[in-house]
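Ticket #4471: complex job returned nothing on first submit. Input attached below:
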Amino acid sequence: MQDLIASSLKFQNNTLMVLDQYLLPHQQVWHECRDVKTMRELILSLKIRGAPLIGLGASLLIAYLAEQDTTKAVLAQAIDDLEATRPTAVNLMHCMAKLRVALQQQDYVAEVINTAVKLFNEDIALCEKMATHGAKLVNSGDNILTHCNTGALATAGIGTALGVIYKAQQRHGDIHVWVDETRPLLQGGRLTAFELERWQIPYTLICDNMAASLMAAGKVDKIFVGADRIAANGDFANKVGTYNLAVLAHFHDIEFYVVAPLTTLDINTACGKEIEIEQRNGAEVRGVSGSFGEALWAPTNAKVYNPAFDVTPAKLITGWVLDTGVYSQADIKRGALRGF
Ligand SMILES: CSC[C@H]1O[C@H](OP(=O)(O)O)[C@H](O)[C@@H]1O
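Support reply: We reran it on our side without changes. The output follows.
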């Protein structure tokens, strides 16, 4: 299999490597992955994360195993096991479905490898298209608020919502970004801040609970977020706290955009209520000692509610920025998403 290099995932010299995003930004540690057990742990612990990227990481592992003369039956089981790691981001299911088709072909080893490579390279192109469409929505001097991390760390390319911000800055040179820290795992404060610094894009880090007062003060011009799964009616699941922003944006009449590739679209899910929301370990909310350098601060036995995502209804969304263009409420109401 050819070398494939992305910010946090690479296949080089026949070795699959994953950048440990749980340790970023203060430690850059790459893990080698040779088996399903390791990839499952990397995905479940969000060492590899981001809707598009977890699908690509899983796909590259399957391709690596195929190249190692793994039997068809073991590959089929590996696809099932990886697909079962996280239930909300549909990109993973899309990738695994394509690999199942490849596995049924006569020359399945070549087909699986080619499919994984194609998915990886397609994602790079999808990011460029989304960013180009989305950047046209940004005006000079805009203050953009974003949530979680949707950049190069979460994709094989420049990202989804953060890719829009990257291209908008290339276009205008004078935008500013409010970065939600994104409790509880701080993907915004750790990863988006890290990426914006690398790209030298001015940003201000805020706690999630500060977004409302910034909007009330007229300091937020637009909001761009990513998605883990977009239902056929335009509702979407994204990192928990996204729905808060959509409601606040609606109240303050601020443009609210979701940015995602078509691989995040799930036309078999009719509406947001049908999207399964991943429930995660309470320790992430109570406080994790070690990796973030934080001590446990909540009572050890505190009961915790820790959904990884929430659902935003289509009626709160100004526009859907996909790789195929920008879609309005009217487009969605006439069933544009069902046309894919
Ligand atoms: C382009 S990444 C999309 C999506 O994935 C993230 O979730 P996680 O960090 O749990 O993998 C977040 O919801 C992003 O918006």
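Residues 46, 49-52, 148, 150, 154-155, 160, 187, 226, 228, 238-239, 308 surround LNRAV4D5 (CB under 6 Å). Closing as resolved unless it happens again.
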